[in-house]
Amino acid sequence: MTSERHPRKKTDHSARTPKNTGLDEKKLFEENHVWGTHPVHELLLTRPRSIHEILIEKNKTSNKLQTIIDLARKEHVKIKFANELRIGGPRINHQGIIARVMAQETLNDDAFFALLSETKKPVLLALDSIQDPHNLGAIIRSASAAGVTGLILPKDRSAPLSGTVAKISAGALSHLPVCQTTNFVRMLQKLKEKGIWIYGTIKEGGNSIFSTDFSGPVCLVIGGEEKGLRPLVKEQCDFRVTIPMKGKLDSLNASVAAGIILFEIVRQNTMVS
Fold first, then answer.
1. Which regions of the chain carry the CATH code 3.40.1280.10?
2. In 3D, which of 27, 26, 51 has the Cα closest to residue 41?
3. Whole-prediction pTM value?
4. Dist. CA 271–CA 273, nearest whole Å
């Protein structure tokens, strides 16, 4: 028996991931691109060598875009202009600019502790199983605004540091040192050995954040969106703290909770200084 062959149609795969490869097209796009004027501008200011090229729509004009173009040329970053940006991946509000980038730079445990050795009274933020990239991006934005020394993420229990995270953080991701650790619990133990106090957030039953002393070297641990802190993580906390609630709701979004507690830490440290 013979099978009839039909002529193959030519397909352009240059702008999208081939089908049936088992690859997540959206994930691949987000891991390799940063979009939006502010995130791209911050990336140019802080890590220009991480940018392969910048794509800009010809019909988009603004002072911010021109600033980016001038800075990219100064840093010898390749720029391409297109009539329309149509790249395989999710629908995004790119504001007429997309940067193709290398993977986000992170620190291992040793490099992170070397950074801490240069800081007299660090304020750290550790995120236990934050899976939503929008939450992660919002937390990073608050952390940067609060002057956090560094961010600790578990390597396998966290949303990736994607383009969505960079966009939601409004460029703050480029400014915040990030440690991705393979053993989150052991990392907390090492911090304690270095004299850093570990404060774990729980929904109820902890000390009020407004009566808790945050004046020393601090590591604030925020739990995942659904289950909060894992039991082994909770065991490592020197203090367990709670945000007092007055209304009918008994919990807050992880990014909102992180922002409230971080700025209570800022308030206390400002009063001390």
1. 109-272
2. 51
3. 0.71
4. 6
